[in-house]
Amino acid sequence: MYQTLGKDELLLLVIKHIKDNHYKEFHELIDELHPIDIAEIYVELPVKHHAKFLSFLSLRQMATLIQELDANWQLDTLQKIGIERSSKVMNYMENDDVADMLSNMTVDEIEELLASMREEESKHVQTLMQYPPDTAGGRMTNRFVWIRNYYTVTEAIDKLRTFADFAETIYYLYVLNEHKKLVGVVSYRDLILASPNEKIDNIMYNRVISVPVDMDQEEVASIIQKYDFIAIPVVNDQNILLGIVTIDDIMDIVIEEANEDIGRFAATGGKTIDFNTPIFTAAARRLPWLILLLFIGLGTGLIMSRFEETLDTVVILAFFLPLIAGMTGNTGTQSLAVVIRGLVINQEMNRSIVYKLIAREFGVSLLIGIVCSSLVGVISYLWHDIFALSLVIAFSLMLSLIVGTLAGTIIPLILFKLKVDPAVASGPFITTINDIISLLIYFKTAEYFLLPYFTS
User: Fold this and answer.
1) What is the pLDDT of residues 42-77, one digit of tens each?
2) Cα dihedral sign, 162-164-166-170
3) DSSP character for 105?
4) What is the pTM of this model?
5) Residue 90 burial by CB count (10 A; 0-12/13-18/19+): exposed, middle or buried?
6) For residue 37, is it within any domain?
7) Based on the structure, what is the number of domains in the chain?
8) 295 and 212 within one domain
9) In what helix (H) or strand (E) does residue 16 lie, and over which residues does it extend?
10) I need a labelling partner for 151 at 20 to 30 A (CA). Which of 57, 84, 247, 412 fits?
11) Per-residue pLDDT tens over the stretch 262-316
């Protein structure tokens, strides 16, 4: 009925139902929408309609809505509905989502909300909050379905039906022994294809891929991507099943880590800066790196003052300064991007891989250097008709491109070896370093080969 309506039309329809107190029509509309669409409509609603919109929702619908909102909107929504109703709503939310939401609150607010939740749900949330947020434990949910290996397929399906509404995902059933240790896994597909009286022990996979509770979230995401899992079990050092990390959490991890790496790559402190970030916050995140780069960049001024005589004598050198520096910075940034991407995909960088990578990038830089330096050499000769100048520019560019590419390759590898996130070797940092290197090469080459030509 509503599938052909655009977002703006749906928004106007929701406002109309709210204003006219059309409770039945409102729910007919809401029931046809995906949770994320409901959240987007809520965010777009004029503030004056928020309270009434929330009053029309059931506790379960409100829980679903809050799970789709970002942190600021979650806190704002909980404040609107009050502590008593908030605690009831949180009982319907996934425990891992509740733990993530509470991590953005003050200690007093957390204690008040946990105290008003159902005791069992509150204990589950508190358990999840014990783990660092960027680990498997901090990302897992403890809402999963487990069975015993002596169950029949019929018994397993009956338990799945009973707990389907409780579990966050029902694609896998995890098999535990009497000590709650993980001994196998059965997929929903396995249950459907097996005969009703077949024992779980006969159809389960014994070699279970799991992750330790303290594993970094990026490694968890890599394992799920490697094996194409929808969920992965999380265990402690005794192999006791504590929870599962699901694919929706992995998508959040991938986006968060990408934003963090982009922030570091752009020298913004590794934190996401979006359109809603306050001016002072955005500036504070950018300034430290930029101030550091400013002082490093002063090196270019010192270099130019050192070669002032060369520049005064051969003024024409100034025409090609931006080209040399710009091309060197570009190739360095390209190599940096390639290396960081490779490190994300392949965390185990042995000596053989490193040597192969450096050799490959050297070969690439040599080929690029030959092509680009030949082009700029020909252009400079046609422009100024000075063969010595063309040779100096071509040679300087080729050498600068090789050195710049190797800098963009080796610097992040060194940081990775030192257990420092290589993304901190950001584009601006590599570009600034390469500017200094390229100017040194350019002026030193000109001083040695070109200055005698112009002074003789």
Assistant:
1) 999 999 999 999 999 999 899 999 988 988 898 889
2) positive
3) S
4) 0.59
5) buried
6) yes
7) 3
8) no
9) helix 7-19
10) 247
11) 555 555 555 555 555 677 776 776 677 667 767 766 777 777 777 777 777 777 7
